[in-house]
Amino acid sequence: MADEHLLIVEDEVKLAELLKDYLLKAGFKATCVSRGDEVLDKIRALSPALVLLDLMLPGMDGVTVCRELRKVSDIPVIMVTARVDEIDRLIGLEIGADDYICKPFSPREVVARVKAVLRRARPAEASQRRVAGPIVLDENTRQVTVDGHPLNLTPSEFGLLGVLMGSPERVFSRGELLDKVQGYRFEGYDRTIDSHIKNLRKKIAVHLPGREIILTIYGVGYKLSV
Length: 226
Prior knowledge:
By secondary structure, the protein is an alpha/beta fold. A hairpin with a 2-residue loop joins strand 6 (129-132) and strand 7. It has 2 domains: 5-121, Response regulator (Rossmann fold), CATH 3.40.50.2300; 129-224, Winged helix-like DNA-binding domain superfamily/Winged helix DNA-binding domain (Arc Repressor Mutant, subunit A, Orthogonal Bundle). The chain is globular, with a radius of gyration of 17 Å. The strands form 3 sheets. It has a 5-stranded parallel sheet, with helices on both faces. Helix 6 (155-166) packs across helix 8 (192-207). 40% of the residues lie in helices and 22% in strands.
């Protein structure tokens, strides 16, 4: 959707301006912030559609920013990091980020990722309500309830649950889920599905203690079983 406002949180000024230029050419509006401790105030002022959030920032690091943001908002977040080991990647996802990008990267890839995440975050054009046991998912309102209790999900978690609920008892491989939810697949990114599954299980378990709804099929992937 044209004219959506994005917030770029990056302390490397040249990189931030490069990303901004590419996003502007793609039809977005963009604002740059260089300090982590300025992010929440800027989000309140601008209400951006998505945040590109660097991991290493002055004032407050990206992980802390994302944790604080998730307490008050489900705005899509793409983590940007130069620290490429798997633990740091998954830290970003476990705190509620929707995706991550590793430096160095192509600005065109960033634009493609932004568009993919925003597509998942938008309401469906036609109402589609899915029910699987105690879980109800409405794609039009972007709301999920478990046993009548609302569930606060990130866009990626919502998309993943929607795919699983669309075919209960079907086993999906990590690669299939990544294609359906993220809209692309890159080497090493299959493991991000594990983080989203872990977060979904935690959130569902709050309202269904003792019940495992999303099952791991070892060596294959995951399925929803109610």
